[in-house]
Design goal:
Maltoporin, Chain A, 396 residues
Length: 396
């Protein structure tokens, strides 16, 4: 059971409305363990009541996760996954903060993959389907890909792959997002490869490259990156990349940015500290809600400390900026920045009963407009939100 209070339920800059949300989740997890078959199914109905939307009554916001693995031989393994979510939290529609309105959405992602070891070559083929719908838009995307990797000598590994995606969006995101996007059908073709070398017992370094051709505005994206990983068990863990992406299209001026996808964490006796950075172009139409090709920069940090075996505190902050490129969206839409910071406490009351208390403060800065609340009134995109959540979790 979770009780959540917020001072800005509709995520608007003025005339804020408080809300108390009560959520009761009677979930279950089923595990499958056989000689050649492994799997799990977890589900929760998410019965939800909002004081600010009392006329609707109890809403059903479920989540279901399923995963299966079948070993046909020591060299061939099949995998299947499916994730279904129905919710109205903007952060769950897109983790990079592209959606700015509270509205109910349904999302389902289904995936199939096969891993086959052919002599010394490890191959993988995969397919996944993404379905995302709201009252305004529906996006259906399919992705089909394959890759192969093999060792060159005792220390080097080469990997190559190809991926094809198509997506179709009906409706328009311009009324419910901080990044206006257009609807329609689009495809993308991507080829990629990497060469890595083990430089130590827990260290790897290499170079990677990728080329993507998009049918929307005949856009092309090149990327070249240097990457490395290093670990000193059990404390230090580093995964870093630094590169350059170049975006070219027939509709917009050519642009290029320095890219990174890096995470550094360190584990002390009782504490864990982590920092990360991300910067690149992203083709959002390949899965989930479609906002076209956007340029995203994100920075995050977290600190976790265990006072006692049953008491843990956390502090975290994240800053994300999204900007349009004009590929599948409106290039004149101003960029939007979102700052999220908070702290929390987790307490294991009994062996079967735990509790958590979490506070989160959110600041969004943007000159763009969005449809705020159920009235659909266009307002400036700047807003702040405070949220406090308390949960009791029983496991049997």
């Amino acid at each position: 059971m979770t009780e959540t209070w917020t001072d800005n339920f509709d995520l608007v800059p003025s005339n804020k409305q408080q809300n108390f949300r009560t959520t009761l989740g009677l979930g279950t997890t089923v595990l499958i363990s056989g000689a050649d078959t492994q799997g799990s199914i977890a589900g929760q109905p998410g019965l939800t009541y909002d004081s600010a939307d009392a006329s609707v009554g109890v809403k059903l916001l479920p989540r279901v996760n399923a995963a299966f693995q079948q070993s046909l031989s020591p060299r061939l393994t099949l995998n299947a996954t499916d994730v279904y979510t129905r919710n109205d939290q903007p952060a769950q529609t897109n983790s990079f903060g592209l959606n700015a309105q509270r509205q109910t959405f349904s999302s389902n992602t289904f995936g199939l993959s096969a891993d086959w070891l052919m002599d010394l070559v490890a191959t993988q083929g995969y397919f996944w389907n993404s379905y995302f719908t709201t009252n305004d838009t529906t996006t259906v995307a399919n992705t089909l890909g394959a890759n192969a990797s093999t060792g060159i000598g005792p220390l080097n590994t080469v990997r190559v792959g190809y991926e094809f995606s198509d997506s179709n969006t009906t409706g328009s995101n311009s009324g419910n997002s901080t990044v206006g996007a257009t609807s329609g059908y689009g495809t993308s073709n991507t080829v990629y490869g990497s060469l890595s070398r083990q430089t130590g017992q827990h260290s790897t370094a290499g170079i990677s490259g990728a080329y993507t051709l998009l049918s929307v505005d005949d856009a092309r994206v090149w990327n070249v990156s240097l990457f490395a990983s290093h670990g000193v068990p059990p404390g230090l863990s580093l995964s870093a990349s630094l590169g350059y992406s170049f975006l070219r299209s027939d509709a917009e001026p050519n642009t290029g940015i320095v890219t990174t996808n890096s995470t550094l964490s360190y584990t002390f006796t009782r504490a864990v500290i982590s920092v990360s950075a991300f910067r690149d172009y992203r083709n959002t139409g390949n899965g989930g809600q479609n906002f076209g090709v956007v340029q995203t920069s994100g920075y995050a940090g977290s600190f976790l400390y265990t006072f006692t075996p049953s008491t843990t505190v956390n502090v975290q902050a994240r800053y994300i900026t999204n900007g349009t490129t004009g590929i599948g969206n409106d290039a004149s839409t101003p960029s939007v920045s979102i700052l999220t910071a908070g702290a929390g406490l987790r307490w294991q009351i009994l062996g079967w009963l735990s509790s958590s208390l979490q506070y989160t403060h959110t600041v969004q800065s943007s000159r763009s407009n969005f449809a705020a609340g159920s009235g659909g009134i266009l307002q400036d995109g700047d807003y702040t939100q405070n949220e406090v959540s308390f949960s009791l979790i029983a496991n049997f």
